[in-house]
Design goal:
- This protein has 95 residues and is an alpha+beta fold.
- It has two helices and two strands.
- The protein has one domain (1-13, 41-95).
Length: 95
């Protein structure tokens, strides 16, 4: 299993001046606000969720590779993570 996620802040593959994502209704949580430097609020949730999933999978004996990083949910990161995960995917039995 390969899990990766950005943290919703501007990362190395986000062009300078990347505008924040549009407001997403329902994501407001006054008890746990998004970091001030988040430009992709929904992505700020992903490392926590993916980390919890990785922990659970590992507790069940499932091999898990993770990569959590500064960045957003955008095509440059998708391409990078695909390249990082491809060797593992190609070793998968039955392919």
């Amino acid at each position: 299993m390969y899990l990766s996620s950005g943290d919703g802040t501007a990362g190395p593959l986000d062009p300078p001046g990347t505008e924040p994502d549009p407001h997403v209704p329902g994501l407001e949580d006054p008890s746990e606000p998004f970091p001030d430097n988040a430009i992709s609020p929904t992505e700020t949730l992903m490392p926590r969720e993916s980390s919890a999933l990785a922990t659970r999978l590992a507790s069940l004996g499932t091999p898990v590779t993770t990569h959590f990083y500064a960045g957003t949910h955008s095509p440059p990161y998708w391409a990078r993570e695909f390249r990082r995960s491809l060797p593992m995917l190609l070793r998968t039995p039955g392919l």
